[in-house]
């Protein structure tokens, strides 16, 4: 069991006074079979009530309405999370025999059940003629083996470069200009998996900052792949590793647009600057 102390801060600075605003934050680690939140504290600079709701994928959001003039708003979330590494799938040893796995994966029931995660989104779409042959499924491979090879391939192809892309950068652009950050690595891997009709989803969360992993300074992104019998298995193409006890999950969805840490509406509209600060420390 590994225990983390996590701190997330978002500071919004507005060029003109805001009269009214709605904010929704998706930053609290979720509960699943591998992790649980054992303590948390939520504060904001305007001392207004925060209320909780769940998004369409069932993940908890923090929401508030500001009905007073302001030009700065800060949210701070601190929590303690325990990870159970024994319940994380890290190998394909328990995979089904190849023919049995393929029969399930290619069945109409499996495709219908996971269609949401097979269908390409605008951010993950790739044209068939763009994709190198090495990124196409080979019939002799199990899904775990193929996903592992894609994880390594995306890592080897991309160059980690903060500031080179935006939240709207598409996977198709990354094949010609393979630079970006964790969300770009994730979108490219999602696009390649979905082109091969393999269900997969975008994951947002936090990463242990004590291991020198790429992407740990802010909220991180990785990929989960649905493999018969194994379930949803996490891969981190930014670091060419499995998503393991170092990864603390917040939410998942089709792509980044489902997992953005902050959504908001301000009145009147205007320019602003948002700064995010993340700390992830292992508790001894």
From TrEMBL:
Keyword ATP-binding: no
Domain of life: Bacteria
Keyword Hydrolase in record: yes
InterPro entries: Papain-like_cys_pep_sf, Transglutaminase-like
An example Gene Ontology molecular-function term: peptidase activity
Gene Ontology biological process terms from the UniProt entry: proteolysis
Domain Transglutaminase-like, chain residue ranges per copy: 174-239
Pfam families: Transglut_core
Keywords: Hydrolase, Protease
Protein name in UniProt: Transglutaminase-like enzyme, putative cysteine protease
Lineage of the organism: Bacteria, Pseudomonadati, Bacteroidota, Cytophagia, Cytophagales
């Amino acid at each position: 069991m590994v225990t983390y102390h996590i701190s997330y801060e978002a500071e919004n600075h507005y060029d003109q006074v805001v009269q009214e605003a709605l904010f929704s934050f998706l930053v609290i680690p979720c509960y699943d079979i591998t992790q649980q939140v054992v303590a948390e504290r939520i504060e904001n600079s305007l001392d207004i009530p925060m209320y909780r709701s769940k998004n369409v994928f069932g993940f908890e959001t923090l929401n508030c309405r500001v009905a007073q003039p302001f030009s700065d708003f800060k949210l701070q979330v601190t929590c303690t999370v325990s990870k159970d590494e024994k319940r994380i799938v890290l190998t394909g040893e328990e995979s089904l025999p190849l023919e049995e796995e393929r029969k399930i994966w290619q069945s109409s029931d499996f495709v219908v059940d996971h269609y949401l995660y097979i269908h390409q989104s605008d951010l993950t779409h790739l044209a068939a003629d763009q994709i190198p042959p090495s990124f196409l499924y080979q019939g002799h491979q199990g899904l775990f083996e193929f996903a592992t090879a894609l994880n390594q391939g995306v890592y080897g192809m991309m160059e980690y470069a903060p500031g080179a892309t935006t939240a709207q950068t598409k996977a198709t652009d990354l094949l010609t200009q393979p630079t970006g950050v964790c969300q770009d690595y994730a979108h490219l891997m999602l696009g390649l998996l979905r082109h091969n009709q393999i269900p997969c989803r975008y994951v947002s969360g936090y990463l242990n900052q004590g291991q020198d992993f790429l992407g740990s300074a802010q909220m991180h992104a990785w990929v989960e792949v649905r493999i018969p019998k194994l379930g949803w298995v996490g891969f981190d193409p930014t670091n060419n590793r499995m998503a393991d006890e170092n990864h603390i999950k917040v939410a998942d969805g089709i792509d980044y647009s489902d997992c953005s840490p902050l959504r908001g509406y301000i009145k009147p509209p205007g320019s602003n600057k948002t700064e995010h600060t993340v700390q992830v420390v292992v508790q001894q």
